[in-house]
Design goal:
Pfam family, one: MipZ
Radius of gyration: 19 Å
CATH architecture: 3-Layer(aba) Sandwich
Oligomer: single chain
Organism: Actibacterium mucosum KCTC 23349
Order of helices and strands: EHEHEHEHEHEEHEHEHH
Number of helices: 9
Protein name: ATPase
Distance between the termini: 26 Å
Number of strands: 9
Structural class: alpha/beta
CATH topology: Rossmann fold
Number of domains: 1
């Protein structure tokens, strides 16, 4: 059965689609069969990223390793059982249609709380939560005291992950490996950076996730999206000598793939 990776964060602008595309494409490049879903039915940023890749390859006669992408199937409401949610059925059918053949299924969730996102989290073997390195985004994970920064309790999102873990335990499934990524870690404001790291480490022990390095803010990520390409495609596209920023970004991706510690994956780039 496929290992299911869910990329979730209920705040927009954390780099979920960029993260999803790079993880899925890296796995494809390493020889794994990868299926993908985008549960943001309105914006489809991840889905459009893959669309851009397919069009770019067709236009230029390229054969870049590309994960399989599927939209959620349409369902006749009359086929639903009494009390069955249509989104549950659509997601279940999409996953079951890929899980027999795929090594991994990567599901990109919307930046808001939806029924689809809630169900997807309960399917996750690995949950990746990209987080901008600021206390504004830290609020996604926990409520803090405004005066001294003490952690008062988990956020609504963390409680949703806890519920997903309980559902998996009741079903006899393995525990979710929850990985929180520190994105856009800057060199400035070292005091805030240190406080953020300490707060994340404290919360990680309290509610059970791992902290891993993500991507720094780089222009290259905005330049890659229109063609559907990733950092690992640059040499195939004739970019022989990568600049220092591109090399650093590639190393960040390598560090991320190693940190995820996905089953059967040997990072070889």
């Amino acid at each position: 059965m496929a290992h299911i990776i869910v990329v979730g964060n209920e705040k927009g602008g954390a780099g979920k689609s960029t993260m999803s595309m790079h993880v899925a494409t890296a796995l494809s490049r390493m020889g794994h069969k990868v299926g993908t879903l985008d549960l943001d039915l309105r914006q489809r940023s991840f889905g459009r990223y893959i669309d851009n890749r397919q069009k770019f390859c067709a236009k230029h006669g390229l054969n870049l390793p590309t994960p399989e992408y599927r939209d959620l199937p349409e369902i006749d409401k009359d086929s639903l059982q009494p009390g069955e949610n249509i989104f549950d059925r659509r997601l279940s059918m999409a996953v079951s249609g890929m899980e027999q053949d795929a090594d991994f299924i990567l599901i990109d969730c919307p930046g808001s709380h939806t029924r689809l996102s809630q169900v997807a989290h309960s399917l996750a073997d690995t949950l990746i939560t990209p987080l901008n390195d600021s206390f504004v985004d830290f609020d996604l994970l926990a409520r803090t005291d405004a005066d001294d920064g003490r952690i008062l309790g988990p956020s609504v999102y963390s409680e949703m992950v806890w519920s997903a873990r309980q559902l998996r335990a009741q079903a006899g499934l393995s525990a979710i490996d929850w990985v929180v990524l520190r994105n856009r870690v800057g060199a400035q404001n070292m005091h805030n950076k240190k406080k953020m790291g300490e707060a994340l480490d404290t919360l990680a022990r309290r509610i059970g996730f791992r902290v891993a390095p993500g991507f720094n803010e780089r222009v290259i990520f905005r330049e890659l999206f229109p063609n559907g390409t990733t950092l690992l495609d640059l040499r195939d596209l004739g970019v022989g000598n990568l600049n220092l920023s591109n090399l650093a970004a590639r190393q960040e991706l390598r560090d991320l793939m190693i940190a995820l510690n996905l089953p059967g994956v040997t990072v070889d780039f």
